[in-house]
Amino acid sequence: MSAPDFSCVVAAGEGGQEELRASVESVLDQSLGAAEALVVLPPGAGGELRTAAEELAVRSPDRVRVLDAEVDSVAVLRNTGLAAARGTYVLVLDAGERLQRHACRNLLEAGMSTGADLVAGRWSRFTGDGAKEREPSWQQPLFVRSRTVRRFTDAPELAVHDALVTGFCLRRDALERHNLRYADDLTHSEVLFGPLAASVVGRIALVRRRIVSGRALPDAGRDLAGLVEAHRRVCHVLVAQGLAGLREERDRAFPQDHLVPLVRSYPELPAARRAAIAATAGRVLPGCVPDAALLTLPPVERVGVRLLERGDADGVLTAAYALRRRGTVAAPLSTGDDGRVHWSDGTDPALDVTELGHQYRVFGELKLMNRLTRYEAEGRGVLLRGRMVLPAHTGPDPDGPLTAHLEFRVRDGSRAFRVPVDDLRADATGIDWSVRFDLTGAVRPHGPRDTVWDVRMVVEDGRTRSVSDLFAPHDLLGPSHRSPARPRLGRATGDTWQPYITLRDHLALRLEAHRRPARTARRLVHYATHFRPARLVRRLARALGRRRDRFRSRGFKTSVYRSLLLRLPVRKGTAVFESHMGTCYGDSPRAVHEEVRARGLRLRCVWAYADSPEGFPADARLVRRWSWRYLWALARAEYWVDNQGFPQHLDKPVGTTYLQTWHGSAYKRMGFDETRVRMQNAPQRERLQQAVGRFDHFLVRSEHDERTLARAYRLPEKALLRTGYPRNDVLLAARARDEAEGRLPRPAPAAALGLPDHRKVVLYAPTFRGGPGRRRRQRLLLDAARFAERFGDTYTLLVRAHYLEAASLPACPPGTVVDVSGHHDVGELLALTDVLVTDYSSIMFDYALLDRPIVLFAPDLDEYAAERGSYFDLREKAPGPVAATEEELFAVLARLKTADSGFQERRAAFAAEFGDYDRGDAARAVVDTVFARYVVPSRTSRTGEARR
What we know:
By secondary structure, the protein is α/β, with parallel strands linked by helices. It is 36% helix and 21% strand.
């Protein structure tokens, strides 16, 4: 028989016959036929494991060989397979790992075409519940594309993370030439083998395809000492190769990849195992993770690793709760003389949690950990004891009446029962509490539908209340803690309360059936709901539900709109307004609406909102976007007014005038100039053309808009209204007021936002970085906490996320950072802002009209311009300094007056070029032009076209 192209070594373990079959069958199912499987059994293997291996060998004698190792060690099993391999390339699998269908072919083709000695690809592993698989997040940059590197330092993730524990193959010649073998004195020898091989072989090929799936989730607690030793040896290899920088990167990655997941798993482990792991960690971890690497971790992760290093099992458990419930104060906090906040007592920098911002919140605002320490059940009664954590800087009012009660609330419902907590003892770091009560009589469920109840405690001091779940490790409760239950519908619906700890680590009660009447009743109910007539009824109900959902779907509503509603006559004098797809009452549609209202035009105004009508005008009719009333209003309106675009699939009725005010001048390419649009198929481009073809009027504010937006959307000359943007009228009025009266006092919204006059206001308004259909919470490029720490005494930072996104802000000192993303009208914010910080947002074109400082914080300017395309060089025309890093931005803000002095002429030229048509009366000019038939002739003024 000729030598195979691939030898796949499968190391078997006792009791893993099903995993062994899965691995070997994945080899036999390869699209590359010349792949053999070498099954290596531990010494003395017999029974089902050997039977499974021999059955596979009998079924495919030419492709499966069974080998016996001399020593029961995973490394020895692997080495036995390597020594017997005959293939051009050799790959090692643990039992249970499965090759993808074309894995061997992809690896072989990459190896042969590049001459690589080592070829690696993606792999996935099971998640915590063992039901789903996921690739480690660090694989994305490593395998973003197929490539070849001459040294593994050109792909540092190969050594920084455990990328080569599986999913790679070695040329057998290189394996023998360098005498590469798994270290038989290491339990985690696979961690060392991959980096060692990558450091000595020649060319390395990386393929972006997934090679292996089904890898077991690593259990660092099973052999922490072996894992730490393997990590140390990899670091020694890197140092021996003169790669101290890579060793530092690995030191930073190791705790994040292995120790933090171990800390996070602590509540699910039995107490004895938690103690054993902590004891081992206290022995092997000191010195493993340098402090410099540890301090790069986020605060809670850093605390957990440090406490694990100290061998503090209870401290690690507390840190795990804080990891699993973000934002929870899980331990007492101490504040030093320097104002730094530490976890519990001490000054260890690794326990510094200042950046969490807990010190800026008070009792009632903080989520406090309330740890259940004891649960006893005796007959109908139960005893609960616990302790609520209190940080040093806040707590209940010492002069107020301290009371508490347990609240039992049905899951996904509103019913609740209260039990008062009589025994409360507060001290400087927490509140000890205990309560003994009749659970059977206190909590009376109905029975069939309210079987799960969550338990939490409410503490009040007369003015403030704090609500907290009762945290506990998962092994605190068991069958011995059951209590009798007495449902209102009788014991046949349930007879026993079983307390348990949920996946979110808090106490809950579950109504169960343990006695014969309840078990019989549940079996009857199950039969009644699962026999054939009941199944038919359920199928009918689901079909009716699908039909109901279809009637509510946008597709159905669109068809009704086109076929029926568009046949209705237009109602004269009706105008539908919408701003940013209904997310706010603002921008130019608001300015036009307020001009209509101020001049008393006889128009019936309708405003569309997306989620909540709060903040929309009370004197207008409000309709929810995509509701039937919304479609009715659009079908009958004489005017459509919006700044983004009414839904593309909704045709404009005959006799309706569509005023598109648009939402900003363009820096990035738009419309048919976008690469994304050019890559679309013909029907998609035609749909966009039809959507913009509905516009009767399109507002522009400069010749730049005519060259860019008008051309990009293929708008006819007759559609352009050269009036400027109505939303900018307030900015020009604010500038005139500044020049006549000065900037203080600030406009009225400043007081509502709590902005003092002695601090300058910085508005940070980044652009939208997603794409169609992507609406998610974004991490800001600007670190708001660092800004507050650096400039909190002189600046207040207003953060306004794009209307299609939301910002995640850290806790900061009061008054230093304010999230104004929900503020309806950005014009009001611009009028009270002293400095604008943005990147590529069109807001810079509007703010330039105020002639106030602008700073462009654009760390990814070149990448953004290359990906999205741009109409001009931003650095060349920037109305203010362009900062590429946060430090550069902070340096500009620290010397703002000096930095801005060199940009005043450029800012004036910027405003003149991009806002030439903005004169301060755009709203009046638009109303005079678009709603001319409703304007009293004597009150008309010249339109923007005439003014030009």
